[in-house]
Structure formats: structure tokens, C-alpha cells
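Input C-alpha cells:
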């Protein structure tokens, strides 16, 4: 498993999603990933300042991430990996460690959702 995942809760519910550390909260199933173009849009990223808040709940996500969460739930999955939310962007050590593992994260995912037609992360999946 990746170091961190978004736990969307039971796929049939609309529970608040939260970031989890996989080693501490052993996931109970496969995960999906989302591939997106960051572009120039502003979107939520995990940082040293907001990491603890993300562990309690993830709110105010941009359209591409909202679509990815909806698709993940609709496909019957609970866990989702989004690079900007699951890697601490302003922690050089975390970023360096996670960047070297990224190929494994994508390779071991059950499915990769791709926002291929979006110029940035606000365009959505569909």
C-alpha cells in the first residue's frame, strides 16, 4: 500500500473522507489512483500545516478530485490515492521518499482514473 490513502468510507455511504496512514490503519481492500494535470488551478495539497486536519476529514476538493471520489465509490471501492493529497508537498523528505515509490503506487492500484481531457485539476474527469 502507499504510505497514505484517502479513506472514502463504505462505498454505499457518503461519510466524510479522510486521509489515513496505511501502516497505522490497515486498509481492507484495493485502492484506485487518479492521474491529473496540476495546471495552474489552485487545489488542496497536503502540507505540514494541514496534514493533521486531513487525517480528520478532507473537504473542499476541486472537481477532478470530487469526480474521482464519486467514481471510486460508484465502482465499489473505498480507497483512493491522489498525489497532491497523499504526499506532503512541502516536506522534502516525504516528497523524495514518496516520489521514488510512485511507480509502485500506480502499478499496484486496482485501476487508474485519468483526467485526460482536463487542462488542470479543476476540469473534472467527465
Amino acid at each position: 500500500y502507499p504510505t497514505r490513502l484517502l479513506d472514502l468510507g463504505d462505498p454505499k455511504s457518503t461519510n466524510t473522507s479522510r486521509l489515513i496512514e496505511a501502516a497505522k490503519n490497515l486498509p481492507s481492500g484495493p485502492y484506485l489512483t487518479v492521474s491529473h494535470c496540476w495546471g495552474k488551478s489552485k487545489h488542496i495539497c497536503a502540507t505540514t500545516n494541514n496534514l493533521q486536519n486531513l487525517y480528520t476529514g478532507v473537504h473542499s476538493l476541486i472537481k477532478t478530485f470530487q469526480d474521482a471520489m464519486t467514481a471510486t465509490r460508484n465502482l465499489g471501492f473505498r480507497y483512493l490515492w491522489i498525489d497532491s493529497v497523499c504526499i506532503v508537498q512541502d516536506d522534502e523528505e516525504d516528497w523524495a521518499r514518496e516520489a521514488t515509490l510512485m511507480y509502485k503506487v500506480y502499478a499496484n492500484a486496482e485501476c487508474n482514473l485519468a483526467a485526460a481531457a482536463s487542462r488542470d485539476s479543476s476540469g473534472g474527469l467527465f
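Helices lie at 51-56, 63-74, 83-86, 92-107. The mean pLDDT is 88.
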